[in-house]
Design a protein that fits this description.
Rossmann fold; globular; Elongation Factor Tu (Ef-tu), domain 3; 252 residues; 2 domains; alpha/beta; single chain; 6 helices; binds flavin-adenine dinucleotide; six-stranded antiparallel sheet; 21% helix
Length: 252
């Protein structure tokens, strides 16, 4: 059964031209428990009555009295523009948490292939629980994010990701894969190692070009982003003989 949460939008932070991080403090109930990867359901008003939109929780489940969302404002989109129109200190109703997208507790290395705001549930999975090890249940797994974005200008959370990768003694690492840049010239030299050109699957398979299928079977793939991207990534992984049970996904 989903719970209804009365919340207060306490902070709205612009991340790039059309993406915002929304911070909601709980009014009632005062506490939320969720599994990293789960989403909340927003009811947005429309001329035909309220419409539901789902948003993955982007924050840590250590924090019980608030949660965060990362939402891209879609041109003409009902839910995302409703959120965008809200001023700080407005009350907002959500239902949730819900969803099955979450870390599987096994020893496999976790590879996130996410695009755009698909970073939201991945962020929650990485920053929840303890910072090091990332998960008490699976302390020996490596966590790698391959984050697909179009251009360098769109990037957000870079400092946070860098800090996390330092704090977790490289149990966590990340690569931002830019699909519309011709080269990495505009990126400061010290940050170039965090970037690559192309799509997330190419980035991963370039880095691991020599792996045998047995070695690939030690990885588990978490896909998140728009429906078409996730479907195409899934097909790519299947053609590389990655077993279906090692592909976990959330389609936005
Ligand atoms: C489980 C789940 C979790 C999700 N989590 C997030 C999240 O964390 N952050 C987030 O931003 N979104 C997330 N989404 C997507 C979100 O639920 C909405 O679909 C999205 O915000 C668009 O809704 P809207 O009401 O603004 O647009 P709509 O009114 O539904 O669509 C308006 C128009 O925009 C088009 N459109 C819809 N989405 C996009 C897009 N991304 N780019 C370009 N055009 C588009 C539609 O085809 C339509 O023509 C998630 C979806 C699911 C299913």
């Amino acid at each position: 059964m989903l719970s209804t949460y009365r919340t207060l939008l306490t902070k709205k932070t612009q991340l790039n031209s059309d993406t915002y991080l929304y911070h909601f403090d709980l009014i009632e109930p005062k506490e939320i428990k969720f599994i990293p990867g789960q989403y909340m359901m927003l009811k947005a008003p429309s001329s035909k009555g309220p419409v539901s939109r789902l948003y993955s929780i982007a924050s840590s489940n250590n924090i019980k009295d608030s949660f965060e969302l990362i939402v891209e404002t879609v041109p003409g989109g009902l839910g995302s523009n409703y959120l965008f129109s809200l001023k700080e200190n407005t009350e907002v109703i959500f239902q949730g948490p819900a969803g099955m997208f979450g870390l599987h507790e096994n020893e496999k290395n976790k590879v996130f292939m996410v695009t755009g705001t698909g970073i939201a549930p991945a962020r929650s999975m990485i920053i929840s629980n303890n910072q090091f090890p990332i998960s008490k249940q699976i302390p020996n797994s490596k966590f790698q994010i391959y984050w697909g974005m179009k251009t360098y200008k769109e990037i957000y959370l870079l400092e946070e990701l860098k800090q996390l990768s330092n704090e977790t003694m490289e149990q966590f690492s990340f690569k931002i894969c830019l699909s519309r840049e011709q080269n990495l010239d505009i990126i400061p030299d010290e940050d170039k190692k965090y970037f690559s050109l192309g799509h997330v699957d190419n980035c991963f398979f370039q880095q691991y070009s020599n792996l045998t299928i047995e070695q690939l079977n030690k990885f588990e793939f978490y896909l998140c982003g728009s429906r078409n991207v996730v479907e195409s990534l899934k097909q790519t992984l299947l053609t590389k003989n990655i077993p279906q049970e090692n592909i976990i996904f959330e389609k936005f």
